[in-house]
Each structure stands twice: as structure tokens, then as C-alpha cells.
Amino acid sequence: DGGITQSPKYLFRKEGQNVTLSCEQNLNHDAMYWYRQDPGQGLRLIYYSQIVNDFQKGDIAEGYSVSREKKESFPLTVTSAQKNPTAFYLCASRKDDTTYGYTFGSGTRLTVV
Amino acid sequence: QKEVEQNSGPLSVPEGAIASLNCTYSDRVSQSFFWYRQYSGKSPELIMSIYSNGDKEDGRFTAQLNKASQYVSLLIRDSQPSDSATYLCAVRHGGGGNKLTFGTGTQLKVEL
User: Fold this and answer.
1) A contact test, residue of B4, B25, B100 with most A CBs within 10 A
2) Cα-based distances in Å from B7 to A50, B10, B36, B71
3) Distance from the CA of B9 to the CA of which of A65, A102, B22, B87 falls in 20 to 30 A?
4) Which has the closest alpha carbon to B51: B75, B37, B35, B38?
5) What is the DSSP letter of B94?
6) Pick from B27, B40, B20: which is nearest to B90 by CA?
7) Partner A, chain B 29-88, Cβ-Cβ below 8 Å
8) Model confidence over B3-40: pLDDT tens digits?
9) Contact yes or no for B47/B108 (Cβ under 8 A)
10) Which residues of chain A have a CB within 8 Å of the CB of B99?
11) Is A106 touching B (CB cutoff 8 A)?
């Protein structure tokens, strides 16, 4: 079955450490997105990519980095510059020529320890 | 100023009743509107999309859009306990990237 796979499901980060969240899709979708969800704040856009080797900052890109070397993959790195990284991270994708709705992965819950 | 506004709830309705969830948005050039359902600890699931003024029905769900009033709503008929979740309103606004802006969600509780 096609879908979006995020890994790991739970991730713990120590102070000053960089961590990378994986997002892989086999839906042949063109665009991919990373959102962060905090309680009571809804989903906030971190980065997005419409084509391979190109990506743009969202509303809260500081302290994060991404790459899009393959159509299927859009990993997110949470760097030590992100001072409050504890959140639920959601990856989504969308096919350009169909519905504009996103398909979400199952999410990664990141906690600073 | 928030671009997409929702009442956080919780909205409590008895089983079998109609649940009415509301959303307002600020960007007048917004063209596409979506409702997602999110169970606690899970990722959002798309349940309805609407692009033109009026009503769109899909099973027990009806989405309503009024672009003049910048208002979109979701009605759930014959509410079931399994409908208890947070409902997120999302709006695709003008500009590149076809990005969605999400409201903070309305928590719905369907009581037996």
C-alpha cells in the first residue's frame, strides 16, 4: 500500500545534539511538507519542497534544516539552534495535479531530555 | 493575527445529534478548504474538502462554504462516540507552494 512513513515514532534528544527525522513516501507525490504541532497551537509549517533539490522556508524554519535529494525522501534535521524542539512533527505530501489536500505520515514525537 | 480561527471547545454533543464545527479565515483570496480529523496522539486524516460556495455532502459529513463571509463549517450528522476527536480546519491561501494554514482545532466529544 502507498503511504508516508515517518521514523522513528519517538525520539529523544540531548541538549546540544542534532537529530534527523525521516520521511519517505511511495505515493509519487511531488510536494512534501514538514509541520510542527504543539498543544493549543495547531500545525505550523517548518519547510516545504515542491520539486527535487529545491525547498523553501516556512513560518518557523529557524533551527531546522532539510534536504530533498530524492522525490521520495524529505528528511528534517533539528539542530542544536532550535531551543524548544519538544513537539510532534508531521510530514505530509501532495500530488500536484490532484486534490490539494495533504496526506500525513504518522508523526514523530521528539522530546528533549 | 491568526489566519484561521476555530473555537477550541470542547464541543459536547449527545450520540445521534448533529455536531456543528465552525471556522473563519482572514485571507480573502483563499480558494481551497479542508477538514481534518485528528485522534489524540495520531496524525490528521483528511475527511472533507470544499472549493466553491455552498454545501458538499459525503456520508454523515457536510462541509459548508461562504466565501463572502469567509466562513467554512463542518456538520456531522448522527454523531457517534467514534467521532470524538479534534477537527482541524485548513485553508490553502494564495501564493507559491500550495501551503495549507491550519486552525488550532476544535475538540469534539460525543457522549453516550
Assistant:
1) B100
2) 32, 8, 15, 13
3) A102
4) B35
5) S
6) B27
7) 32, 34, 42-46, 49, 88
8) 899 998 899 999 999 999 999 999 888 889 999 999 99
9) no
10) 33, 45, 48, 58
11) yes
> Å from B105 to nearest chain A CA?
7
Mutation choice for B interface testing from A37, A55, A93, A97 by most B CBs within 10 A: A37
Instruction: Write out the three cell numbers for B89.
Output: 480546519
How far apart are the C-alpha atoms of A11 and A111, rounded to whole Å? 6
Closest Cα partner for A46 from A83, A92, A111, A15?
A92
Which grid cell is A63?
Answer: 533551527
3-state secondary structure of A78: strand
DSSP class of B18 = P
Residue B28 contacts A where some CB pair is shorter than 8 Å = no
